[in-house]
Design the sequence.
């Protein structure tokens, strides 16, 4: 699994990557992205035609979107998630509980919202294994996070 937190890079290295002039990139996906984007980024300021600029912007946006999808597919999938049934229940309850003007719940009412939901419906609470370990193991608990 690739590291999530990387060492900070010098600004000159970052600029070389952004401009497509780097000798090496942090991933093969990013290198492919920069090969697609470098010509677009060079051509965009030169172009005066608005339609051509819109097309270039769409191409860059779609390239970034596909890059993010590729990187997301590499990440490990969590072994916990909210069931669709529970999600629809909480969405329906939220719609009843929210403020009709702002379509939001005030922060001071959020605890009451969760209490009311848990009182009316039974649901499975998804727990990240790391959080479960912190709750159970004495050396990984909340006391070590001070």
Sequence:
């Amino acid at each position: 699994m690739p590291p999530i937190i990387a060492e900070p890079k010098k600004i000159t290295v970052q600029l070389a990557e952004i401009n497509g002039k780097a000798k090496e990139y942090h991933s093969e996906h990013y290198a492919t992205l920069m090969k697609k984007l470098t010509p677009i980024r060079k051509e965009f300021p030169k172009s005066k035609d608005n339609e051509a600029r819109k097309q270039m912007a769409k191409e860059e946006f779609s390239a970034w979107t596909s890059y993010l999808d590729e990187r997301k597919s590499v990440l490990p999938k969590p072994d916990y998630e909210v069931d669709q049934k529970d999600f629809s229940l909480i969405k329906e309850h939220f719609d009843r509980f929210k403020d009709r003007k702002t379509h939001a719940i005030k922060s001071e009412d959020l605890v009451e919202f969760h209490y009311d939901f848990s009182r009316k419906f039974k649901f499975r609470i998804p727990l990240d294994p790391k959080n479960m370990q912190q709750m159970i193991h004495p050396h990984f608990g909340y006391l070590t996070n001070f």
User: Anything to note?
Assistant: The mean pLDDT is 81. The CA atoms of residues 86 and 122 lie 9 Å apart. Helices lie at 11-18, 28-46, 50-74, 84-97, 110-120, 129-136.
